Amino acid sequence: MEFRVFGAVEALADGVRLDLGHARQRCVLAALLVDLNRPVPAERLIDRVWGDRPPLRADGVLRTYVSRLRRALGPTATISRRAGGYQLDADPDDVDLHRFRDLTARARRLDDTAHALMLVEEALALSVADPFTGLDTPWIEAERQLVAVEREAAQAHRIDLALRVGRHAELLAELPARAAERPWDERLAGQLMLALHRAGRAADALRHYQVTRRALIDHLGTEPGPELRELHQRVLDADPSPAEPNRRVPQLLPAAPAAFTGRERELEALDALLDRAPVALLTGGGGVGKTWLALRWAHGHRDDFPDGRLHVDLRGFDPVAEPLAPDAVVRGFLGALGVPPREVPADPDAQAGLYRELTADRRLLVVLDNARDTGQVAPLLPGGTSCAVLVTSRHRLTGLVATRGAVPVPVDVLDEPGSADVLARHLGADRVAAEPEAAEVLARHGGGLPLALGVLAARAKSAPHVPLAALADEVRAARLDALDTGDLPTSLRAVFAASLRVLGADAVRLFGLLGLVPGPDVAVPGAAALADLPVPRVRRALRELEDAHLVQQHVPGRYRMHDLVRLHARELADDPAALERLCDHYCHVASVAAAMFTPGEPHRRPPVPPLVGPDPAFPTHREAMRWVDDERACLLAVAGHGQPRHAAHLSRALARYLDTTAQVHDALALHTVAAERTGDGFALTNRGFCLTRLGLAEEALPFLRRAQAVVGDDLALENLVNTQLGITVGMLGRNTEAEEFHARALAAARRGGFRHSVAVAQINSGDQDIISGRYDSARVRLEEAVDVARDLGDPGLGAVALGALGVLYGHLGDKAAAYEYFEQALKFSEGVVRTLRMGILFDAAATTHRLDGAEAALPRYAEALELCRQTGYQAEQARVQVAMAEALTESGRTAEAEEHRRSASEIRANLR
C-alpha cells in the first residue's frame, strides 16, 4: 500500500488508486496519516476535519467515515480504535510525507556531503506538488504551511550541499531567479554570492551584495546581517581563513522542567534546527508553556552544542520587572564567553560587534526567552551560521521572520490527554487514580495551559490532606479565582494583564468586549458592531491582539479566544450596551441575507431591523448564504444569550434557509430556544417541522398544534402552520387531513396575497392529488405553480413544481412527458440550493424505476446519492440508499444492496 499527500490525498494498492470517497472522508485519512502509527483522539480528528463547525453527533459521523476508509483500504493498512481515538498503522516509508521528512532528517545527520545531497534531492522529488490538494480546513492549511516551511528548508539545505561539492555552475542556472523572487532573503543572497565567487565572477557577487543591501534598506530599514557582511568581506579579501580564538564554554541553561510531557510535534519541528541552524521562534499566549518547551529541547540536545549554551529571560512580559535592554544582555553574554570586563568595549555597538565575532564560527545554542519585540532580539543574534537560536515570545515577531529568517513554531494549548498527563506528573499517578473524576475536572478547567495546570497542582500539593474534589468544586465555582496564587509571575490574571500593557487603547477596550461574545468566535464586522468603532480601527486592534496571542485568527477574518483569556476579558468589559449591539447587528444582517435567499417570501420573515455596525455587502445570494454558514454557530449562541426578541427574530428569518439547506439539527436547536424563550408561533411551527424532517412526525404534532392555537389574524402564520401540518400528517399516512390542511394553507395565502406561498400550497395539494389518483386536479395545480414561479423569477420554486409534474406524468404512464419535465426541473435547479436538486433526482430515479426498471434507475439514484454526500444531508442520503438497495436487489447485486441498507441504518441511528 502506498499513500500520497503531496498533491491529492491518495492510496494506491499495487499501483491501483483506491476510491477514498468525498473530501471530508479523505481529510480523516490525511489527519491519520500525519500522525501515522500514533493514536489520534476522536476530538482532535473532529477538530482537524471540521474545525469550529462540526456536525451534530460528530462522533457518529466520524465512525461512519472511518468504517468506509477501512473498507476502502482493505487489510493492508489497519485503522484501529484505541484510547478513545483512531490509529492508522503502516510503514512510514509508504507515506510520501514521512519519507520526505525521514530523508531530510537523515541528510542533516550525515557527514558525507555527496550522500546527504542525494537524500535531499530524493526528498524534494517527492514533494513537487503542494500537499492536501482539494482539502480546505484550518488544520489542513496549518499543516500545508508547516510542510511549505520544511520544503523551503530542504531546498536551502540542498543548495548548501551542492555548493560544498562544487556544483556552483549548475546552481547559477536557478539561484538568480530565486533571489529575484525573494530579494530580502539573506541566506539565499549569500548562496548566490558564493556560487558567483566560485565561478570566478567576484564582481557579480559584490554587485549582488549591493542589490541585497539596497533592498533591505529600502524595504525593511535594516543593514545586512553579520553573516552576509562577513561573506562580502571574504569575497573582497579572496576568502581568507579566520583565526581560531580562545574559547570558553558557557553553561547558562536553567534546570530542565520536571513535569514536562507531550509536545512531540513541536519538538520534532525544533529538531530541524540541528544542521540548518536558523532562528526558531516559539510563539503562543501567556502560560502556554513556551519556556518549558524551549528548555526541554535545549537540555535534550546539550551534546549537539559543544561550544556551550547561552540563556536569558528578556522579561518582555514580566508582570513586575521592565524588559531587559539588549546591550545589558550582550555584556552578560560576553562575560559568559570569557571576555574579561576590562576588555569589553565601552560603545554598545562595539560590544555587539565583538559578540557576533566571538560566536561567528561556534556551535552554540542561544535561548532568548520572553522577548517583547524584534528590536530586543535582533542585537542578540549570534554571528555566522553555526549557532542555533531559540526565541520565545507572546508576540509573533514578524520582523524577525522577515529580516532574519526565523522559523515560527506556534505553541498551542495542550489537548485533554496532554493536560491529564501534566497533572498526573505533578501530583503523582496514585493521587490522580484515587480521585479520577476530580482530577478530570482540574485537567479540563486548566484549559490546556501548563501554567494553569501547574498552579492547580501546586495548590493540591500544598494541602495534601484536602481532597481534590474540594479544589475541583472551587474551580467550577470561580475558575480564575482558583488560579490566582497571589504571586504575580504565576497568577493567571497578572499573566494576561502583562500582555495588555504594551497594547493601544482600542485594542485594550476591544479585548474586554470580546469577552462578551456569545459565540465561539467573531468576524471583523461583528467586532466593529460590538465596539461601535469603524472597521479600519477594529482591524488594527485585532492585529495587535493577535500579535500578542490574546486572540487567534483561526480562519481568515474570524477571531476566537482561549476560554481562560475570555473569562479575564469579560471581567474588563466596560460597555453594558455592547452585547445588545452585537445581537442587533446579527439580526439585521441575517434579515438582509434571508431576503436575498428567498425574495418571494417576505411575509414569512420578520421586518428588517435598523442597521447596527457595518452595512453588509452581498452582491449575490451565494455570498448571503456563505455569511449564514460562517456565522451559524454564532447565530445559535445569540438566540440563547441575547434578548428573547433576538431569538424569535433569528428563528423566523433563517427558517427557510436552514430547512432548504438541510441544516436540520442546527435549525431544531435555534427554533427550540426561540420557542421556549418566547412562545412565538413561527418558532413553534418551525420547531415542529424540524422534528418532521427528522422522521419524528408524531413528536412534531404537539408543537404545531400549539402554534395553531396562537395564529389569530396573522395570515402568514396561518399559512405556514397549515402547510407544515399538512406535510406532517401526510408523512403519517393521514392523507385526508393533509388535504384539508393544504387547502387552508392555500386559502390563507390567497387572502394575504402571498403568491410564492400560493404556489407552494398548490404543489403540496398537487402531491396529495397524485396520491389520491386525482391526476387532472394535480395537473391544474402544478401548472399554476409553474406559472407563478416564472412570474416571480424563482428557479427553485419552478424546479420543484416541474419535478412534481414529472412524478404526475410518470403515474399517467407518459414516459416521454415525465422525463421531459424532470429534465426541465433539473435545468431549473442548476445553480440553486442543491437540496432541491436532490429531491428532483430522487423523484426522477423512483419514476424511472417504476417505468423502466431497476437498471435504468440506478444511475439516477447514484447521482442523487453523490449529491447527498456532497451536501451532508444524511436523512435524505438514508432514504436514497434504501431505494437504491431495492433497485440493486432487483438487479441481482445483493452484496451492494446490503451495504447500502447497512449504511442507511447507521445514518438513521446517528440522526436519532
UniProtKB/TrEMBL annotation:
TPR repeats lie at residues 799-832. Residues 893-905 have a biased composition (Basic and acidic residues). Residues 1-90 form the OmpR/PhoB-type domain. It comes from the Bacteria. Residues 1-90 bind DNA. SMART domains: BTAD, TPR, Trans_reg_C. Keywords: DNA-binding, TPR repeat, Transcription, Transcription regulation. Residues 890-912 are annotated as: Disordered. Gene3D superfamilies: P-loop containing nucleotide triphosphate hydrolases, Tetratricopeptide repeat domain, Winged helix-like DNA-binding domain superfamily/Winged helix DNA-binding domain. CDD domains: BTAD (cd15831). The keyword Chloroplast does not apply. It holds the Pfam family BTAD. InterPro entries: AfsR-DnrI-RedD_regulator, BTAD, OmpR/PhoB-type_DNA-bd, P-loop_NTPase, Sig_transdc_resp-reg_C-effctor, TPR-like_helical_dom_sf, TPR_rpt, WH-like_DNA-bd_sf. SUPFAM superfamilies: C-terminal effector domain of the bipartite response regulators (SSF46894), P-loop containing nucleoside triphosphate hydrolases (SSF52540), TPR-like (SSF48452). Belongs to the AfsR/DnrI/RedD regulatory family. PANTHER family: TRANSCRIPTIONAL REGULATOR REDD (PTHR35807:SF1), TRANSCRIPTIONAL REGULATOR REDD-RELATED (PTHR35807). This is BTAD domain-containing putative transcriptional regulator. It comes from Saccharothrix mutabilis subsp. mutabilis.
